[in-house]
Amino acid sequence: MAATGRHAAAQDASPVSMAGHPLVGAWVVDRNPDDHTDPPTAVVYTADGGWIDPVLGVAGMWRATGPHSAEWTAFGLVAQGAQGYFALRTSAEIDEAGQTFTGTGTVTIVAPDGTVVNTIAGGPNSHGARLRMESVEAAGKPFTGVPTWEPAPPPGGTPES
Amino acid sequence: MKKSQASQTVSRRAALAGLGAGGIGVALAASLGSAAAQDATPYPMAGHPAIGAWIVDRNPDEPSFSPVINIYTADGGISDPIGGVGGAWLPTGPRTAIFTLLGLINDGPPGYIVIRGTNEYDAAGMISTAPYVVDIVGPDGKVVATMRAKNRATRLTVASEAEGGTPLEGVRPWIPATPTDATPVS
After folding, report:
1. Is the confidence at residue B102, as pLDDT, over 70?
2. Complex ipTM above 0.85?
3. Per the domain annotation, does B174 fall within a domain?
4. I want to staple A60 with a disulfide (CB 3.0 to 4.6 A). Which of A51, B71, B160, B175 is the partner?
5. Is A2-134 a domain of CATH 2.40.128?
6. Which phi and psi (to 5°) does residue B105 adopt?
7. Taking a contact as any Cβ pair under 8 Å apart, which residues of chain A between 21 and 60 contact chain B?
8. Which residue range forms the structural domain that includes residue B37?
């Protein structure tokens, strides 16, 4: 029984071992490198298949599809649930060094009543950079791997006259 | 994907409504897990059906509740980045586990919530149900409210891109509550 549940989530579903997979760890993720207003986020891929983004409040599961590839499904609320949820389904390729990945996938937005509102597919690739440990001597420097961005002005910030 | 940053604390209204979690995250989960879980349990955590991601319906009898997602790690941690809650779990049998979650309250009188419950997993390891108790505790350490409820959780499985455009299995439709300030005053 114990095995059944876990297998359903990750390991039996994958012909590739998750142990030692290069995706395991923490990543700084640029969800859309073509959008310079989009801030990065951080995602933790656990060795037992967990996918956790505490920055955006999204979580899910991942599984290995090859020695340098994986796919994941994640769930998050839209407007704290007032406007439904989104399902993120992504596949990714990790480079040989295990330091970057490129992902592509779909985002499906579902209303609270279960109606699919929109699906965004085939968009720009996401990009991940492994979050590396830095010593205290690195204080005062930007964090490695975090891209720069230009925050979009707030909707009400443009004068009307 | 665009999404506003999630609050790292729990709304008091959500807590009072019987929230399934509160939010400290992985660090707390890991520390609690190593201290409380692995040394204390006669049941192995490895291979336990609790491990994985769960779409949690905090109270199936409450149609306005949106779901949250709980990640149970193999080392005894629980993380709920949607609810902004973290904690620990401990196997009590091959198909049962207890959990404790902690979260801060971010509106109204300050304090924190503690959720304590017992998960029971079906034979396939795909569904879990849990009676649980929510305690709201003030900064002075006094319990100001206690609620009981029962949740139902569905295992989240990884889907392929080809399934894009379909809702996630296990997510129950809900009716968002009307915001308090949306009610006309006159």
Report:
1. yes
2. no
3. yes
4. A51
5. yes
6. -100, 130
7. 31, 38, 44, 46-60
8. 12-182
